[in-house]
Amino acid sequence: METAEKSGIENPARVRFAPSPTGLLHVGNVRTALFNWLIARRSKGTFILRIEDTDAERSKPEYEKQLKRDLEWLGLDWNEGIDRGGDYGPYRQSDRYDIYQEHARWLLEQDKAFRCFCTEEELERVRRRQLQNNETPRYSGKCRQLSKAEVQARLDRGIPYTLRLRVRPGTVGFSDLVFGRIEIETAQISDPVLMRSDHSPTYNFCCVIDDFLMKITHVIRGDGHLSNTHRQILIYEALGAPVPQFAHLSTILGPDGQKLSKRHGATSVEEFRRQGYLAEALANYLSLLGWSPPTEGQEVMSLQEITGQFDLSRVQKSPAIFDTAKLNWMNRTYINKTPGSSLVKDEGADRYFIDAGLIPSQPDEQVRNWLARVIDLLKSHVDHLDQLPAESGIVFGFEGAPEIDPEVRDMLRDPEAGAVAREFARLVEEKESITAEDYRRIVAEVKTATKQKGRNLFHPIRGVLTGRGSGPDLESLIAVYEEGSRLNLPRKVMSCHERLRAILNA
Ligand code: GLU
Q1: How far is it, in rounded angstroms, from Cα 243 to Cα 213?
Q2: 225: Cβ below 6 Å to ligand 1?
Q3: Is-contact 145 172, C-beta < 8 A?
Q4: Quick one: pLDDT at residue 266?
Q5: How many separate helices (H) and strands (E) can be counted in the chain?
Q6: Three-class SS of residue 286?
Q7: For the chain: N or C, fewer Cβ within 10 A?
Q8: What pLDDT does 399 receive?
């Protein structure tokens, strides 16, 4: 049976991801998006994408485009919001200014908001004095009690004003689904500004109006917004709007306990994508930042499996640590589960080889199929796909002098190992090119002729073919050499014959 209660969500949830398009989507934000998405899917609800672009100077269309691409890449599809429409649009805040104005006017008419004519300088002066007296800086309430006539007189003189919420006395609190009950005296809060003196709405105001009108049931966001929540609840109250549930997600820290930043390496989804992290691996890893599945030890899970188990009651409030080593392990696990053909076709792994000048910039089907087999041989050695070309020396190497491990050189000087290598090379020379079947037959013949077996047989063969003491399965490697040598590649792949000659003559 579906146990919706266990997820902390009884009914289909309406949740939103509300990014500000002022930069690349980073790990913390995308984890917020993911948790919202999981709650929407778990509760068979709605995941809404809303763009909070009220900071006109810093908001850029290209960031909006990029964040949509990131969400799509990760599989976090939204069913309502920008580009999808819905009953509660528009979904971009800059298209909603009339709505904010209208609600501001209503709050003013109801006397739930008031005009504040204090200048910036005046507010700053008060603030400094309060700080000097070791008081928490807060709005003095100076303009709260202005009479109608006093207000009118200031309006007539054209004095600019902000619109502030008239905060009620008493306490205000909420039970955060992650952080628990948080209650404060409203006396600690300044009357929040709803509209600035240039008539632009503030974040707290837009956010509440939108969450209210979009019928958001659960606000799931970073804990940086915990301190905004009391103010926002007071705005809901003033509007006579139902207050949604809140779940704040703890900050993500680097392994050194500092706030995650560039110093810790990649932090944006785009960077991870470019480095060849797989979307499923990144999503899986992010799901474990602050959440743990009920089945202990179970970590590698598809989004679908995570959806089936996700539950806000298992989200911790202690900071989550972003551990690149663990993400790399996760990514390697996914890379190894994914066939090379899909790494090329679906993950675009070929672009790393194109960039490295190893394959043509427009590889045809044959090259891509061959590359898929190359990748299958190498993939267990990499944490992310951009490391593949550097691992591919065993296939592409040998421009000019062959690269031979000193250990292999020494081995081939040994009379017995040398005999195995030469006999192998002689039998290969008899054929134009060798297939897997030829290879098996030749190995059997070498075995009979030299009376060597096991490591003493295979080590010299590997050495004389690859120049290395270890590496991928030889039979597959031989096929890759033979086929690669017939392709027209910018960096020549040597056939088995060429390799044997090069190494024996080195
Ligand atoms: N635009 C806000 C942010 O990116 C969203 C805050 C919220 O979810 O309420 O932090």
Answers
A1: 12
A2: yes
A3: no
A4: 78
A5: 22, 12
A6: helix
A7: N
A8: 64
- Whether 480 maps to a domain, the answer reads yes
Q: Which atom of ligand 1 is nearest to the CA of 16?
A: 8
Residue 7 has pLDDT above 80, yes or no: no
Q: What is the mean pLDDT of residues 327-336?
A: 98
228 CA → ligand 1 middle, Å: 10
**Is the C-beta atom of 18 inside 6 A of ligand 1?**
yes
Residue reference for tokens 């949604």: 244
Question: What percent of the chain is modeled with pLDDT above 90?
Answer: 90
Range of the domain at 462: 406-504
Res. 136: pLDDT tops 80:
yes
From 34, 174, 207, give the residue whose CB has the most ligand 1 atoms within 8 Å, as the site to mutate.
207
Amino acid type, 478:
I
CA 166 to chain centre: 40
451 belongs to the catalytic site: no
What number of residues does the chain have? 506
User: pLDDT, tens digit, for every residue of 332-381?
Assistant: 999 999 999 999 999 999 999 999 999 999 999 999 999 999 999 999 99
Contacts of 255 (CB under 8 A, 6+ apart): 264, 321, 322, 323, 324
Q: Tally the domains of the chain.
A: 1
- CA of residue 92 to ligand 1 center, whole Å: 13
DSSP code string of 438-486: HHHHHHHHHHHHH---THHHHHHHHHHHHSSSS-S-HHHHHHHHHHHHH
Measured distance CA(239)–CA(234) in Å, rounded: 9
- Kindly state whether residue 57 falls inside one of the protein's structural domains: no
Read off the pLDDT of residues 28-51 as tens digits, 9 standing for 90 and up: 999 999 999 999 999 999 999 999
Q: What one-character-per-residue DSSP string does 331-400 give?
A: HHHHHHHS-HHHHHHTT-THHHHHHTTSS-SS--HHHHHHHHHHHHHHGGG-SSGGGHHHHTHHHH--SS
H/E stretch holding 236: helix 226-239
Residue type, 59: S
Does the residue 371 lie in any domain? no
Give the Å distance between the CA of 196 and the centre of ligand 1.
19
| pLDDT value for 1 | 36
pLDDT of residue 400: 65
230: pLDDT strictly greater than 50? yes
In a domain, 260, yes or no: no
Please give the helix or strand (H or E) that residue 77 lies within, else none.
none
Does ligand 1 come within 6 angstroms of the Cβ of 340? Answer: no
Q: Is the pLDDT of residue 220 over 70?
A: yes
pTM: 0.92
Query: Which of 60, 259, 262, 451 is an active site residue?
Result: 262
